[in-house]
Amino acid sequence: MEMMKVAKECGADAVKLQKRNNKTFFTRAMYDSPYCSENSYGSTYGEHREALEFDVDQYSKLIEYAKELGIVLFATAFDLESADFLESLHMPLYKIASSDIVNTPLLKKVASYGKPMIVSTGGVSIEDVRRAYETIRPINENFCFLQCTAAYPVQDYKDFNLRVIDTYRREFPDVVIGLSDHESGISMATAAYVLGARVVEKHFTLNRSWKGTDQSFSLAPGGLRRLVRDLRRVHLALGDGVKRPYDVERAPLTKMVKKLVAARDLSAGTRIRETDVIFRVTGRADGMLPYQLDEIVGKTLTRDMAEEECFSPSDVK
Fold first, then answer.
1. pTM for this one?
2. Angle at CA 88, nearest 5°, toward 85 and 91?
């Protein structure tokens, strides 16, 4: 609950949990296998995993608390039984882990709920992603693919391959694309946004020294706050693509943009030569610009002009 509260304060739109039915998720041999690790919460892997699962009462409390906070709470369904469990709690949307993008029975079941789906695509080929698309799309049109590299964390930056986001946008133009980001930092998410990612998933913790293999590369509150800040800034900074001057540029450019001014005192009737005109910063908003020089050279001055006085189109004929 404290993590949810802090995530909300940092600007996150949603928080995600994970749900496994460990007895049906693992083989008996793996469930009963010894688990001797500094991260262990039990003597066997099954005991360890069970210690990490929330039951229906805990989920219910978290759902109510999320409503109080005004943040979306959802979960990853790791198996068919967990999907049923989560649907009984009226989850507003679902996550599918990278490991289950090849699990078409699970994809079909979760798609059948008619809720939004976020599907990670780490560790698979484009053919696997296409198969998932073809599985989900006829049942549920409201889903998202996340480019993902299933390493925890990703240490070699070439393994991010963020241009896959471009590939997904071309291949699946009717699907929202995002990034499940396993970087120990925040720069890749903003780069992904520029490429078109519109959902960003990050691991989050209150203390990176806590027990658990994911803690060390998870964002602490300060990092999450900066990530949200940067994503919102980039959203605004990309703009609409129309090149135009802005009001905020006027004052600075008034002190830098040169205008056409008289090189010396000039009398009315003078036929203007290039040597009669110089370029100077006047500190004024009005006046002719250097590209307009040809509009006055060769023409006759209609009034007397003092040295360094600005030209205007009405000064010549």
1. 0.88
2. 90
